[in-house]
Amino acid sequence: MKILFVGDVYGTKGIEALERFLPEIKRDTGYHMLIINGENSADGLGIREAEYKAMMQLGAHAITLGNHGFSKREIFNFIDDSRLVRPINYPQNTPGKGLQIVRFNNETLAVISVMGRVFMHDPLNNPFEALDNVLANVKADIILVDVHAEATSEKLAIAHYLDGRVTAVVGTHTHVQTNDAMQLPKGTLYITDVGMTGALFGILGADKELVMQKFLTGMPTRLKPSDSFNLQLNAVLIDPDSKTIKTIQKFN
Ligand SMILES: [Fe+2]
Ligand SMILES: [Fe+2]
């Protein structure tokens, strides 16, 4: 079974990039399951039912979230849907789930999301302990963990901590694909960051003029998604049978 994991989809350009590139990736790779990080799909902040449905219609089996997961209040209308995965290390009473089991033919795929704490501002539980707790009870053929974190060291530490216990650990959140896709010593497949999906000539998906303005003035600036005509899609293809993880980058 091959799994395509697509990095942070940002705004309507992100959905457009999925529509533009997924058919050719499907044709070229023959992936069976599609997992998408959707934390930025609604104008760069959060997710609404419209984006959720659009990604489901494009064949997504699960949507992972991150620090922007709850940015749009509309999410509380569908947070309990079985295809939505928010970071597992939120406090106990936070709505939603950090683990979902998805089935394909006779195989089960566990999708887990976890958030880092270094350079992140959310009051989260220790990600290592949260992962230990969830993994103690997970039964699935394939286990995939989306580590949503800023610091490369924290992502690598989590990956080595899970090495041999899960099928793959893929990083999200920094929106720039890293060049370190590899198999760790005990067999877990890993990449520090999958990268983003949306406008090509924005800054991490946002309008570049506004981001530059923010840096130039030091003033708070409300960002909006870039409307750059050109698109990008960044993903990884995970093949647990051949023990490979391959990066995929599409631009136009
Ligand atoms: Fe993101
Ligand atoms: Fe994020």
What keywords describe this structure?
252 residues, alpha/beta, Purple Acid Phosphatase, chain A, domain 2, seven-stranded mixed β-sheet, 5 helices, 13 strands, 23% helix, binds fe (ii) ion
Briefly summarize what is shown.
The protein has 252 residues and is α/β, with parallel strands linked by helices. The protein has 5 helices and 13 strands.
Overall CATH architecture = 4-Layer Sandwich
- Distinct ligands, ions and cofactors found in the model: fe (ii) ion
How many DSSP-defined strands?
13
Helix/strand-derived class? alpha/beta
What does this structure look like?
It is a single chain. By secondary structure, this protein is an alpha/beta fold. It has one domain (3-251): Metallo-dependent phosphatases (Purple Acid Phosphatase, chain A, domain 2), CATH 3.60.21.10. It contains 5 helices and 13 strands. Strands 1, 2, 3, 4, 11, 12 and 13 form a 7-stranded mixed β-sheet that branches. Strands 5-6-7-8-10-9 form a 6-stranded mixed β-sheet, with helices on one face. Helix 2 (49-57) links the parallel strand 2 (33-37) and strand 3. The longest helix has 19 residues, at 11-29. The mean pLDDT is 97.
